[in-house]
Specification:
The structure holds 2 protein chains of 2 kinds. By secondary structure, chain A is mostly helical. Helix content of chain A is 64%, strand content 3%. Chain A is built from 29 helices and 4 strands. Chain A has helices spanning 5-13, 26-52, 67-98, 106-126, 142-164, 173-192, 209-226, 230-244, 251-265, 280-292, 294-307, 312-317, 319-342, 344-350, 354-383, 391-424, 437-442, 445-475, 499-504, 507-531, 547-558, 573-579, 614-622, 624-627, 638-641, 649-658, 665-669, 671-688, 698-708; strands at 17-24, 195-199, 202-205, 481-488. In chain A, helix 8 crosses helix 15 (354-383) and helix 11 runs antiparallel to helix 13. The radius of gyration of chain A is 27 Å and the shape is globular. Chain B is mainly alpha-helical. Chain B contains 2 helices and no strands. Chain B is elongated, with a radius of gyration of 21 Å. The relative contact order of chain B is 0.07. Classes of the chains: A mainly alpha, B mainly alpha.
């Protein structure tokens, strides 16, 4: 064994000098504070949306507080505000220390901080207003998308600048994870945000139908990978050894699972689209890579848990380590479950059910939440040069949180299995046992209530933590600039080193390599479906939406209907019996954006057109329980009051035309007349059923769209 | 659909390249010094006031 040889080479070539400098703790404290504030907000909104499914009255009959609009508010607040700020706090603290330098630029740090908070603020304003692209976890409209890209680049420059000016020759594993996070999220965000603006608050996705779905879930899945996972693994590799005061179990394993993870993750996105109209080979590719992902994922979990080997007696005492153990266990469970859910036979039952909601919350509440809590308990006393105010309160938080996760996850798994089985159950005579979808909804409402209780536990624990951390901060004094010193290396050659050190010492090379590695996966899957016509069979009878239907579709997007209703009938007998002919990719060619949805809290709407009379929709949208007693759908009374805004109809059609929808110039110029004619026909039809409504109301456009849905193929 | 085979070939060769680089280095003892960095981060906060 050539023991320690590379180390000696390093020592030989390094010219040493000691430098004194200060770590910037202010930026860490600011991001930390934002984490706590937005954690509270995000979880509160989560609790509200959870209870809205039990008590629909909590929708308050207001547009701004309906489930469809504030469910995205919850997910965005948790992912980008709570977890996002948490990542930045963790990164800014650990990066300075593993690089033994202050951040590259204090100004960039400040721009990053305030820019990110402004983005969050604009999200908090626009989402309740119904300004949304409808694409999950990418709902924010185009001006905010641009702001996100800019601020993300500011973060990236600061991150890479810090790594370049580091005083430590070796780049610690945590920093690689941060680099991969930056690079990949940048690609994902930009690629998925290709959209054509119509107005300042409205844009259409550049991709249509199947392609939009593929790009969206390539983004969506990798947002989980590179926003909710890699930065957390990076933080684990710094904070866990510090918390346990022992080196990571295997540094070698950290190298291996890092590269494997970033290489495999990018291929897994199509597992969100199994049994859909996505080409089969893309689906299979997604499944295979999803199953393989268990290896690098568990590599990370095992490396974390085994770091605590020989220290398990301390886990019993130390609440911070307890949080970390639950966090890593939740990561292990979620990354075992993920590949299982990616198997087509499991996915057939689990997809569109609350099983998925349970799955993501094991990850979010367990892995992300608990790791951020552990870091907060570890970090705040250090930033304030004191000790934690109360260990017993932290312990109370730990148990409230752990029970909260269990009370959340178990009912949701139960609900998921219940839905999956009820949707598919046939009687011996061969008809659906539960032909009325509503039965499958009312059956799981008690489980939704139990989930709400779990969420309440979790939030209660969080509030206990806020109090504990506030008291901790009060009893200490904030150390804005932490003095330190480091030995500086100079003129180090890379000759004869560990192959991986070539990357470790060259952040730009490392960045480019990561970029190449992650791009391969994305390009292989996306380019062919974009290019190959045979993947998208065109159906002659499928025609573009009429101007009124287009406006109705935009209302569908605005109200976030896709949060509860899918538009994707999978080729199962249970689905074709219930909803009608299964979905064909050619039916979506004019859908910018696609609206397949990912959850069936309500029934699929793919073939909604013509199922019910206009009057049914009129009453159902005004008060859902009037047509479906026991329904938990919100009431949309304002659609019956509001006048339809048609000032941009022609611009919208022009934008669609640019994106390849075959509207003729004549049809666009004639659009207002065509729109009014169709609206009048619907109003007249309603009048025949003794419903007096003006033809220029929003509800008319929505009815027009709902009645069009999935009918073209029947022509 | 031919482009799929091209793209699969590219991605496979990249994967194999990674595997090759890994095996080569494993056999040439390049992983011997994969411990120090993990210990080094534990000793870094001994700064004096400026």
């Amino acid at each position: 064994m050539e023991q320690m040889k590379p180390l000696m080479t390093e020592a030989d070539t390094v010219e040493k000098s000691v430098e004194r400098f200060e770590y910037d703790n202010t930026i860490v404290r600011n991001f930390g504070l934002a984490t706590l504030v937005f954690g509270l907000v995000g979880m509160l909104v989560g609790l509200i949306v959870a209870f809205q499914l039990v008590f629909p009255v909590l929708n308050f009959d207001l547009p701004y507080t309906t489930f469809g609009r504030i469910r995205p508010l919850h997910t965005n607040a948790i992912i980008f505000a709570f977890v996002g700020n948490g990542i930045f706090a963790g990164v800014y603290y650990s990066l300075q220390r593993v690089c033994r330098t202050r951040m590259f630029s204090d100004n960039l740090s400040k721009i990053h901080f305030w820019g990110w908070q402004l983005i969050i603020l604009s999200a908090a304003i626009t989402l309740p207003l119904g300004i949304t692209t409808s694409k999950e976890y990418a709902e924010l409209e185009w001006p905010i998308d641009i702001a996100i890209a800019l601020i993300w680049v500011v973060f990236g420059i600061n991150l890479l600048g810090t790594i370049i000016k580091r005083r430590e020759k070796h780049i610690y594993v945590a920093a690689w994870f941060y680099i991969a996070t930056f690079v990949t999220v940048a690609i994902l965000h930009i690629f998925n945000s290709f959209e054509l603006p119509v107005t300042f608050f409205k844009s259409y996705s550049a991709y249509a139908g199947v392609q939009d779905a593929l790009v969206q879930w390539w983004y969506g899945h990798n947002a989980v990978a590179f926003f909710l996972t890699t930065p957390f693994l990076g933080m684990m590799y710094y904070f866990l050894p510090k918390m346990a005061n022992r080196p990571v179990y295997s540094y070698k394993l950290s190298i291996l699972h890092f590269w494997t993870l970033i290489f495999l993750y990018i291929w897994a996105g199509p597992h969100h689209l199994l049994y859909t109209s996505l080409p089969d080979w893309v689906q299979s590719l997604g499944v295979v890579f999803s199953v393989m992902l268990i290896a690098p994922s568990w590599g990370g979990m095992i490396n974390g848990l085994l770091t605590l080997r020989g220290a398990w007696d301390r886990v019993r005492e130390d609440v911070i380590l307890k949080f970390m153990v639950v966090s890593l266990t939740a990561y292990g469970m979620a990354t075992f479950e993920g590949p299982m859910l990616s198997l087509k036979n499991v996915n057939a039952i689990a997809h569109f059910t609350d099983w998925i909601v349970a799955h993501v919350h094991v990850g979010a509440l367990g892995f992300n939440g608990f790791m951020l809590f552990a870091i907060a308990y570890w970090l705040v006393p250090r930033l304030y040069s004191t000790t934690l105010y109360s260990k017993s309160l932290a312990s109370v938080h730990f148990w409230l949180g752990t029970l909260g996760i269990l009370f959340y996850a178990i009912p949701m798994y139960w609900a998921g299995f219940t839905q999956g089985l009820m949707w598919k159950e046939f009687t011996p005579e061969g008809v659906l046992r539960y032909p009325n979808f509503l039965e499958t909804v009312t059956r799981v409402i008690p489980l939704y209530a139990a989930r709400g209780v779990g969420g309440t536990f979790y939030l209660a624990g969080f509030i206990v933590m806020l109090y504990n951390l506030l008291k901790t901060a009060q009893q200490g004094s904030f150390l804005a600039n932490e003095a330190t010193e480091a030995t500086v290396y100079k003129n180090v050659s890379h000759k004869g080193e560990h192959w991986h050190k070539v990357f470790e010492n060259r952040p730009i090379l490392m960045m480019i390599t990561s970029l190449v590695v992650v791009s391969i996966g994305g390009l292989v899957q996306i380019i062919p479906t974009l290019l190959i016509k045979s993947n998208i069979p065109t159906i002659a009878s499928v025609q573009p939406y009429t101007p009124l239907e287009l406006e109705g579709r935009d209302l569908y997007i605005k109200e976030g209907c896709n949060n509860c209703h899918s538009q994707m009938i999978r080729p199962f007998r249970s689905e074709t019996e219930r909803y009608g002919e299964y979905s064909k990719s050619g039916e979506y060619v004019y859908d910018h954006p696609f609206l397949w949805g990912s959850k069936r809290t309500g029934p699929d709407l793919m073939r909604e057109g013509g199922k019910y009379p206009n009057s049914w929709h009129y009453f159902h949208m005004r008060e859902s329980t009037s047509m479906s007693p026991g329904s938990i759908m919100p009431n949309y009374g304002w659609l019956h009051e509001n006048e339809l805004d048609i000032t941009n109809t022609q611009d919208k059609m022009k934008a669609m035309q640019t994106l390849g929808v075959p509207y003729t110039a004549m049809r666009i110029s004639n659009a207002p007349a065509e729109l009014k004619e169709q609206a009048q026909a619907i109003a007249d039809n309603l009048k025949a059923e003794k419903i007096e409504v003006k033809s220029d109301r929003e509800i008319i456009a929505l009815i027009a769209y709902l009645q069009r849905m999935g009918t073209d193929i029947k022509k | 659909m031919e482009v799929i085979y091209v793209l699969l070939a590219i991605s496979l060769s990249v994967s194999l390249l990674f595997l090759g680089v890994f095996i080569y280095n494993l056999k040439h003892g390049q992983f011997d010094d994969d411990y120090t960095p993990s210990v080094r981060i534990l000793f870094e906060e001994k700064g004096k006031k400026q």
